[in-house]
Design a protein that fits this description.
Two copies of one chain form a homodimer.
Chain A: E1 5-14, H1 18-36, E2 39-45, H2 50-56, H3 62-70, E3 73-78, H4 94-101, E4 106-112, E5 130-136, E6 149-151, E7 159-167, H5 168-187, E8 194-198, H6 204-219, E9 226-229, H7 230-239, E10 246-249, H8 251-265, E11 272-276, E12 281-285, H9 302-319, H10 322-342, H11 355-368
Parallel strand pairs in A: 1-2, 1-3, 3-12, 5-10, 8-9, 8-10
Antiparallel strand pairs in A: 4-5, 4-11, 6-7, 11-12
Helix pairs in contact in A: 1-9, 1-10, 1-11, 5-6, 7-8, 9-10, 10-11
The structure holds 3-isopropylmalic acid (2 copies).
Amino acid sequence: MSANTAFEISVFPGDGIGPEVIDPTVAILQTLRDRIGGFDLRFRSEAAGAAHYKETGTALPEEAMSRADKADAILLGAMGMPDIRYPDGREIAPQLDMRETFELFAGVRPVRTLPGAPVPLGDPRAQNLDFVLIRESTEGLFAGRGKTVFDGPADRPTAAHDTQTITRAGSERLFDFAFNLGAKRKERGHAGQVTCIDKANVIGGFYFFRQIFDEVAARHGVSDPAHMYVDACALNMVRRPWMFDVLVTENMFGDILSDLGAGLMGGMGMAPSADIGPRHAVFQPCHGSAPDIVGQGLANPTATFLSAVMMLEWLADTHGVADCARAGRVLDKAVEVAFRDNGLVPTEYGGSSGTRAITDAVVAAIADGR
Amino acid sequence: MSANTAFEISVFPGDGIGPEVIDPTVAILQTLRDRIGGFDLRFRSEAAGAAHYKETGTALPEEAMSRADKADAILLGAMGMPDIRYPDGREIAPQLDMRETFELFAGVRPVRTLPGAPVPLGDPRAQNLDFVLIRESTEGLFAGRGKTVFDGPADRPTAAHDTQTITRAGSERLFDFAFNLGAKRKERGHAGQVTCIDKANVIGGFYFFRQIFDEVAARHGVSDPAHMYVDACALNMVRRPWMFDVLVTENMFGDILSDLGAGLMGGMGMAPSADIGPRHAVFQPCHGSAPDIVGQGLANPTATFLSAVMMLEWLADTHGVADCARAGRVLDKAVEVAFRDNGLVPTEYGGSSGTRAITDAVVAAIADGR
Ligand SMILES: CC(C)[C@H](C(=O)O)[C@@H](O)C(=O)O
Ligand SMILES: CC(C)[C@H](C(=O)O)[C@@H](O)C(=O)O
């Protein structure tokens, strides 16, 4: 790759606080690009989301999607507003459509605490968490979305059935991804152990899921594959989360456990994510559009900064651009230093550090090059 | 009711540490009965579980079930052993069959911390948690148990489908139960607010669940019914669990969230439960058979003691026997005092208080009548 690879970044600021966390992130990415050099980032902003649906009748315009399709990466703020819904009552959640359209099967949700940032668990080990949850993001219970089968009269059904689907192909690519990540983490000094989270003791589809996990494990040279029931996992996440390295699970379970993981980091404003597919990747904070705090400067941009780090790393990995990886490390370090040295307490944790204070601290840490 | 109501208690010690926690509980119940008087408890022990399946080919013998059917309450230890499975790979979990057979739709799982007992959350408010999770226990995703539909060749399926079923009748009785409990708690000085936990933004069956919740709420005079998405609930359970009073949810979600709740109490050994149906009720600790610690005196009997408290309360409520309610209060108080005054740290929490130490402290507190 040439030293001046240019990456097209499709930016979806979205609804609510989305733009408030995206703006400083893009500004920081521009600074890093200019400062570090060796690669270019070209941003193009797209209108989409619940507010856009209200205005235009379309949540995710086709032209935006076709430009995003061709971009090198997608950076997303937040989408959806509790009061704006489709006629059938479902929320406007275009990120789910993106996951399906681009087959973003691997929802990567790191649970990493930042020294200095407040966390809920009392044990000192919980101040140094560093594990990753991988949430399958194209099937599972979510595959039943929009396909509910009702019994009885249409205006007063007697029962509702939703089907959870687990496919061999979907599970194989998911577990391959998990074991590859495990191996990469091992190189970096982590345990590298991958644990399959399921409910194989009760639900047949999860027994199937686990069997495929064991097959894929064997192909990756893992002879004693690790499993845990989802209920035990939830318990262990509050009791001894430092035991985990890479967790991999179904869509719905991953949704629940990743929010629990965000809780361990101090809240949704601290939790980044990447939804990765065969040819696309979307990077976004785990939080929603938070209409209650819009326009007050309270939104925590940390999760978006860390999602940008994941984006830089992913671009670097997939295109072999070392300077881009370096930019990721600089931003990651700056976020760490900002929390370590400034006693920042995000407002969601009852503190007074809003968007500006956190952004300024990160910008300063980048400038200092500490 | 006469002052000498005799209750028949069907006891299923079960597998692993089951008998180790049941024995001291039955002994304590006998002491309370003799000491307080005004009611009788007659225990009959039944053989069932995974070990019984291995010996006899039957996990839950019909005769035991028909005696349990006629008993006034069922007290259960733990059932299942990881190595003993049905030919199709599913675990032996006769408690699931009991829930179905006796229609034990309301899985009541209190999250109450005992002052003095160690808990994982650092915030002082987390040392005084007192809320209740109600897990629907006869349908939901568990309704698909044993009914998985596979695509493709039988020896190498390409996909597995499991169906989550939510019925109007099942949801109505569940929510009625929840609002009745909310009202009862309100009388006792709690907030009494009932929150429906679902994923109504994505899954049609949960939107249905939520609509029924709102209907039932209205019938109970609640005009602003409270809802929370399951992912947000998991987050809030680690971030501010003191906000909750009564949570009500689907079977699978309840399984996950109740273990998380047990984590907040310090572990499974602290977490009691009641599975309540129209005519039967099963009381059991949330923990499993824990084969790794069998026979070492390490099992924490607290969850079983507190399950016995729930049994006494339930018998008292359903039969109007005041002395039985008193016995429940005495045992409850004794467990509280035992933890408050003795610095007990269960072995699951890295401490040295085993079955004996905890039992002795509770027995002493009953004797002292403190
Ligand atoms: C907004 C919602 C549809 C979404 C999901 O359930 O996937 C969110 O909770 C998430 O985790 O990305
Ligand atoms: C043992 C298992 C089948 C059971 C369940 O999933 O219901 C247990 O986890 C529980 O919570 O009672």
